[in-house]
Design a protein that fits this description.
This protein has 245 residues and is an alpha/beta fold. It has seven helices and 14 strands. Helix 2 packs across helix 5 and helix 3 packs across helix 5.
């Protein structure tokens, strides 16, 4: 199994296209296809904050649902957009406002189409992916070793939001424990969620969210090679959004 696992895209379509091209994918058919049969995987948070969230949805839907040529797990931003599309009451903040503005600028027919695509993409996705005979786990915010193989509400909260305590930092952000510091399991875990300036490698875990939407990089981990490939962001750099681990 040869995969290229891509970190949180957050609507940065330009960087996504550049990264896939650098990884050897061509776009002749309008979506990234690798001639040697490598496949893409996504750690979630496809949308919000960046300029082209709906375009990203279209491409990942085509790859994963229509062609079954890629793997996707939802992130917390995906979960919030799903709830918005289902008509639930959500706060249109923390980046969701950019996706909603894009959506509301479409004609009604196109709104319905993209909404149905995203709902189907989300509902067909597992909470996390167990691949390569269990040797690889892809989960948006990571996963504890003892949660692998389980799919209850605690696991759902963990893979979407991380190891949250329920407490808040002074800036309102949730307090999260560093689960990767204590991980000792055999499966390689690839995740995102927390922007870091460079891919963080610790105890066979890889945080590949290098903050493309905050002016960092969009990164991919090539598997099984464990090679990191990145492209720089075209957006302004926002230093305070990056966590020093």
């Amino acid at each position: 199994m040869k995969l290229d696992i891509i970190g949180d895209i957050h609507g940065c379509f330009t960087e996504f296209k550049k990264l896939t091209e650098l990884l050897g994918y061509d776009w002749e058919e309008g979506i990234p296809i690798h001639k040697q049969g490598r496949k893409l995987a996504f750690v979630g948070d496809l949308t919000d904050r960046g300029p082209q969230s709906l375009k990203v949805i279209e491409i990942i839907y085509e790859l994963t649902v229509t062609r079954k040529e890629a793997y996707y797990v939802p992130g917390n931003h995906c979960n919030k957009l799903y709830r918005f599309f289902k008509g639930n009451k959500v706060q249109i903040t923390h980046g969701l406002e950019t996706t909603v503005a894009e959506y509301e600028s479409l004609p009604k027919g196109e709104q319905q189409e993209i909404k149905q695509k995203f709902i189907e993409l989300y509902e067909k996705a597992p909470l996390y992916q167990q691949l390569d005979k269990g040797r690889l786990v892809i989960a948006h915010a990571g996963i504890r070793g003892d949660y692998i193989g389980k799919f209850n509400s605690k696991v759902k909260t963990f893979v979407l939001y991380g190891d949250i305590t329920g407490e808040k930092h002074p800036d309102g952000s949730p307090v999260r424990l560093d689960w990767a510091m204590h991980y000792r399991g055999k499966p390689c875990i690839v995740y995102g969620h927390t922007p870091v300036r460079a891919v963080r490698v610790l105890h066979n875990t890889y945080n590949i969210d290098t903050g493309a939407v905050f002016g960092g990089k969009l990164s991919a981990l090539r598997y099984p090679e464990k090679e990191i490939v990145s492209v720089p962001s075209s957006l302004p750099f926002v230093a305070e959004k990056f966590k020093e681990l």
